[in-house]
Amino acid sequence: MAENTTATSPTNSFSQTDTAILDALYVILLATFGASFQYLIWYAKDIVERYFMSTAEIRFDDETFNYFMYWMSRQPNMSKTNRFVAGVKTSGYWSDDCSDDEDDEKGIELDEPGCGENEPSFEEYWAKLTGRDKYRTLRYTPSEGRHFFWYRGKPLMLERQQQQQSPLWVMNNETLYVSCIGRNPAIIKDLLNEAQQTYVERDGNRTVIYRGQRLYTGQQFGWYRCMARCPRPLSTVVLDQAQKDEFISDIKEYLHPRTRRWYSNRGIPYRRGYLLHGPPGTGKTSLCFAAAGLLSLKLYLLNLDSKALDEDNLASLFHDLPRRCIVLLEDVDTAGVTHTRGKTTDSSKDKDKPTDSTDHTEAEELEGKDKDKDKKEDKSPGITLSALLNVIDGVAASEGRILVMTTNHPEKLDAALLRPGRVDLSIAFGRTTQADIEELFTSIYTTMEGDLPRAAASRRLPNGAAKHLTNGSANHNHENGKVEYAEKRKQEENDKEQKRRLHDLRVRISKLATDFSAIMPNGEFTAAEIQGYLLNHKDSPEAAIGGADAWVQGLREKKSAQDSILA
């Protein structure tokens, strides 16, 4: 019995060891198979994406990002996804959505109270508008991750990824990937073209304005869209007509294709610069904005006085400009880099220089402190005059753009900034003349097309016409036809009466403009000052004429008091 027990013990021990080894092998095999399977899936996915799919990469710092996200936020299928980013504008993408105001005012009559029979009162209109201001339109865009959608009957995939290597303070630094099945990316290109068209067409004929700035500390400067405004008619700019014509004609001649060829054939840099100078409020910026609207050019604004703007950022900004645009540098005389360079020493100070050793030592110490201060100022951030001249007219300066500088004190600008090639045409803005005052008065009080009440369609058509369209049998009713004819004749008579009143009003305003210009002094006030006064009486030209003498006297006394304080 003892021998049998001794014989079975090694067998039991061997079976337990074998089972443990087998279990370990199973675990290793399963782990190996899992890793291999995962690798195979990743490899197969990479093969499919590489050889059987087309993908477009859209980066955050490119304007195409705004195109696509604006288009995506307006797709009906975005209301069906269960993973999205909600916002009150298309944004986070640093572009103004100009259609928001139009959406908010949709369905609200904007005419003046009392212009029509059913016109709401101001209180009713304002209550509706302020109510809508509380609830801005929500926009939805896909959240981070993968999203599938249909475009023109074909399935597409959008993948939105955050850049993990970006600094923590960089918000929304992300990349979009748009993919389709097949090696032909035509459907993706069609989508991006449509997105761009949708984004651009929302502006209509507005003038789009960009500003050179940075969004956070440590970021490079870039051009960011800040707004899109309705174009300003050139006729509203108070300036001698010959000067306006010269300015616009010069820009048109510069933008003509033959001019570019002419410059290229002769090795002349294809650039054009303008200096608009004169007292504040004379219309320098207004002329630039009106020219941009007339020629459908984008306007780029840059503040040279920003301490955060260095030479590299300035060069990068000018390098990123499109070929045809207007760059506006406002009040360049306020930027210290543009001031006239000259000697700072004075001979009278040399005569009073101390002679004894003590005073001499103190003078040297003061001089050393001044030098240290100058060195610190030299190391302060900002741009230099040399850097500005290089981006305007240097070897690597951009071509095709129009540079406009405005200043109140042209005598403060360095001569190197004003030489031909950097400033090719200078336009002086002065205070208003008699003709300017008449033109300004007429533009304020003449009834424009947009000032007339926008009658609803039901009021433009004969009364009840909408009902006739919905009731086919009534259209053949003889009695209704007589009513429709009578209403049509009445509408025609009202239109003729309206045109006659407008003609009489324009004749009356022309006479009042002559009377007003006779009261106002010639060449004493700016267009902004006179316009500000007229806006206080925008509904009563007679009241503006009646109070003109008192306003002139009051403004003269105010300026005299300011001059005495400064003196």
Automatic annotation (TrEMBL):
Organism of this sequence: Penicillium cosmopolitanum
Domain of life: Eukaryota
Catalytic activity reported: ATP + H2O = ADP + phosphate + H(+)
The name this protein goes by in its record: ATPase AAA-type core
PROSITE patterns with a match to the protein in the record: AAA
PANTHER family listed in its UniProt record: BCS1 AAA-TYPE ATPASE
Residue span of region Disordered: 338-380, 465-501
UniProt signal peptide: none
Keywords assigned: ATP-binding, Hydrolase, Membrane, Mitochondrion, Mitochondrion inner membrane, Nucleotide-binding, Transmembrane, Transmembrane helix
Annotated TM spans: 24-44
Domain BCS1 N-terminal, first and last residues per copy: 28-237
Main location: mitochondrion
Pfam families in UniProt: AAA, AAA_lid_BCS1, BCS1_N
Family annotation (InterPro entries): AAA+_ATPase, AAA_lid_BCS1, ATPase_AAA_core, ATPase_AAA_CS, BCS1_N, Mitochondrial_chaperone_BCS1, P-loop_NTPase
Single annotated GO MF: ATP hydrolysis activity
Domain AAA+ ATPase residue range list: 270-433
